[in-house]
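TOKENISE THE FOLD
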Amino acid sequence: MSTPISKDGVDHALKARRAEQDRISESLLTLESNTTYQLLDGSALRGGTLVRWSAAQDAAATMWALNDAYRRTMRQAEDVRARRARVGSQELAELNELLNAPTIEIPSPGSGPLTLLPAPDERISLDEVVDRMEVAFRRVMEVVEAVDAVWSAAFPRLDEAAAAVKEAYDLAAELGESPGLGGAEDEVRAMREAALLDPLGTTLPAARLDQVLAALRTRLTALRAAVATMREYGRRKELLTSVIAKVAGAEQQARLAHTEVAVKILLPPTARPQDGAGRLSAELESIDASAEGWSARADRLTALERSAAEAETQALRRAGALRGLLGRREELRGRLLASQAKAVRKRLAEDPEASRLYDEARQLLWTAPCDLNRAAQLVERYSREVNR
């Protein structure tokens, strides 16, 4: 029991109790406005979460019952204080009884309609009311905070998955195709339901959710590409047609270079330029006439754009490489003549081996078509013979 109140301390004691009452009321209102509390209160919970939340609801009901008892007692105390301007002995005794003594009746846990004789009600003081409310509040908050921790970890990723499913359906509707999610949608729904209705009784399969999210992101990327292709098909087709025309021009240059060089340099069959532009044009026509969905056409169009860019680059390189062979022949001729001059200075011009290598190399380099690889070997051997 608290220290008895003196006449001079009555108003201070009432003020302290009022402040305590305000604090209690604020805590209860804060609890009821808590988003997690509200979601739990309105959800059809199950499993272990239902068991713990039922106990938490009992604790919450106890809090409100105790709060009502506290407020009734305070109203009685305020009425007693309002009788007289100055507190008399009778009022002081009543106030001490109300504010400090165990006068608040609490129904016994054993009382109820099934008992033959109800157990006597328990009487406690305001201080004990506050203590019990704090215990009940902690019990409720333990459940609320535990659920909030699970939801805070799970729902951002589940929300991302749900948003991905919705976007996939929206994109697929625009394409007139199936979203192609497989079982991902059902898995996300099941995970979300388990996390919502039994967060404390189930464990979110994080690794599996990662896999589902990765699959959804991949599918979204494909659907977005398909929508972009559908919207931009005309422009991309026009650009691709232009690139294919450039490929044809580059391949024409390569063919001209091949014709020019083949007269002078011995070339392998693989050096002949291919008709890449024709194949690219045929593929574009096939895509244009295709009855496939935009997802498949998007993949084909992207691959064709990449192939066209590569074909243009390769054709230009091939033309340059072919013409470079003529420069290589001139380089070998220059090296051969320079080595011959050095052989004369060193009095090796009449050396049988050196003379043979020189004659063979010169014969190759000044004969068309020139076997450039064989000529390069002979020039190298002749140079070593002169410099040994």
Remarks:
- The CA atoms of residues 77 and 95 lie 6 Å apart.
- The longest strand covers residues 104-106.
- Residues 110-119 have pLDDT under 50 and may be disordered.
- The chain has three domains: 7-147, 158-230, 232-387.
